[in-house]
Amino acid sequence: MSMSMTGTGTTVSHTAADMSRWAGRAEPFETARACYWYQLAQPYTFDKTSQHIGLIGFACDQGVRRNQGRVGARAAPPLIRQVFAALPVIAELQQRFDGQLPALLGDAGDIHCHDNDGFAERALEEAQLKYADKVSHIIQQGGLPIGLGGGHAIAYGSFLGLWQALQQTDTTNDTDALPRIGIINFDAHLDIRQSDVATSGTPFRQIAEHLGEQGQPFNYCCIGVSRFSNTAALFDRAEQLGVHIISDEECTNKKWKKIAAQIASFIDDVDIIYLTIDMDCLPSSVVPGVSAPAAYGISLAFVERAVKLILSSGKVKVADIAEINPTFDVDGRSCKVAARLLATIIEQHLLITETH
Ligand SMILES: N=CN[C@@H](CCC(=O)O)C(=O)O
Ligand SMILES: [Mn+2]
Ligand SMILES: [Mn+2]
User: Fold this and answer.
1) 191 is in an annotated binding site
2) 142 φψ region: left (φ > 0), alpha (ψ -120 to 50), beta (else)
3) Does the C-beta of 284 come closer than 6 Å to ligand 1?
4) Looking at ligand 1, which atom is closest to the CA of residue 70?
5) Which domain holds residue 318?
6) Number of folded domains that form the chain
7) CB of residue 191 inside a 6 A radius of ligand 1
8) Which atom of ligand 1 is nearest the CA belonging to 234?
């Protein structure tokens, strides 16, 4: 474990995969087709790997605290993993990767941010950098990093990891040669707040500024935006930044074909995608365990359908799932939904991945 002190009582650390979390049903009397994810996951090998997926936790909620939200999200990564571990591996994947499945999924452990109720210490920023290093490393090894939040401040870390990986692979140092980055966020909130510190409500404004300083365009599509969860000031900023907004009401009332065409057109205009799912895009009846529950929300069926469409582009280079707060969960249902979306991302990614 690597650990560093960032202020009084504040620590940021990385812990390696805890394989005891990867457990599930034992079925000795079934055929080999009774296969679960817990049987396949292995510790992520940072030195040399052919693993296609690297799961990395961001156990941090200082951004939520700074954003005046309800803390608790830092407990989520191991719980989401644990529920995902017990899900079965679908038949299509078993057929496709016959015999190779155990080499596909790596658990890269967790970045922890213990801020001890501190507001001002720079633990969040350090946690974002440490997390970004892992994300970048996994991308450079050819894998898809999937971040497990933590608060939505994970988004700035995921983006930084992608950015670092692009810088490493761009030998020309020519920013014009960089691929066009698209960001797709499922969220009731725009998360482009103006603030003197980074929070869970600022990541996409920070990304916009970062890209602006580098002379790069900010291509941001936010799906599930609620008019009751964002101020006019935020909608003004979204307009200035050219954000593609698909509201929660559109997701519900418009025909799927129209929404799919909007998403597809956004995807067509970029080369690579960062996909992030803030779990508060779903209704509070489906996902009660978040800092800011949604009264309306968009359906799980819609989110899954859209996530599959986005993954099928083959452009997603990093993904994350954020804002699950186990303190407010009911019977583990929010973690269960997060685990289902995690499985959807993993399945879709592996189904479009070339076999060696
Ligand atoms: N990451 C979430 N951010 C939301 C939280 C809203 C709230 O706490 O009510 C936001 O800042 O808009
Ligand atoms: Mn949100
Ligand atoms: Mn958010």
Assistant:
1) yes
2) left
3) no
4) 8
5) 2-352
6) 1
7) yes
8) 12
Which tokens go with 310? 């986005």
User: 313 alpha carbon to ligand 1 midpoint, in Å?
Assistant: 30
- Average pLDDT of 170-189? 87
Which residues keep their CB under 5 angstroms from ion ligand 2? 187-189, 278, 280
Query: Given the CA of residue 152, which atom of ligand 1 is nearest to it?
Result: 1
* Rounded Cα gap, residues 159 and 320, in angstroms: 10
C-alpha of residue 166 to centroid of ligand 3, in Å: 24
pLDDT > 70? residue 8: no
Check residue 214 and give its pLDDT: 96
Can you give the pLDDT at residue 13? Answer: 94
Largest CA-CA distance found in the chain, in angstroms, rounded? 61
Query: Which ipTM score applies to this complex?
Result: 0.97
Q: How far apart are CA 198 and CA 221, in angstroms?
A: 21
The single-letter code of the amino acid at 128 is Q
User: Is residue 201 in contact with ligand 1, taking CB distance under 6 Å?
Assistant: yes
For tokens 């996409």, name the residue: 204
Give the pLDDT of residue 132.
98
Q: Which of 189, 222, 280 is the best mutation target for the ligand 1 pocket, counting ligand atoms within 8 Å of the beta carbon and taking the most? A: 189
> Whose Cα sits closest to atom 9 in ligand 1?
292
Contacts of 251 (CB under 8 A, 6+ apart): 223, 224, 259, 298, 299, 302
Looking at residue 100, its pLDDT comes to 79
Contact 72, 327 (CB under 8 A): yes
pLDDT band at 122 (very low <50, low <70, confident <90, very high): confident
Rounded to 10 degrees, the C-alpha dihedral 301/55/265/220 comes to 100
Whether residue 356 is predicted with pLDDT greater than 60 in this model: the reply is: no
Domain containing residue 20: CATH number: 3.40.800.10
Inter-residue contact 201 to 189 (CB < 8 Å):
yes
Q: Residue 163 corresponds to which tokens in the numbers above? A: 């950015």
pLDDT: which is higher, 119 or 195: 195
289 Cβ closer than 6 Å to some ligand 1 atom: no
- In tens, the pLDDT along 290-330 reads 999 999 999 999 999 999 999 999 999 999 999 999 999 99
Is the pLDDT at 119 greater than 60? The verdict is no
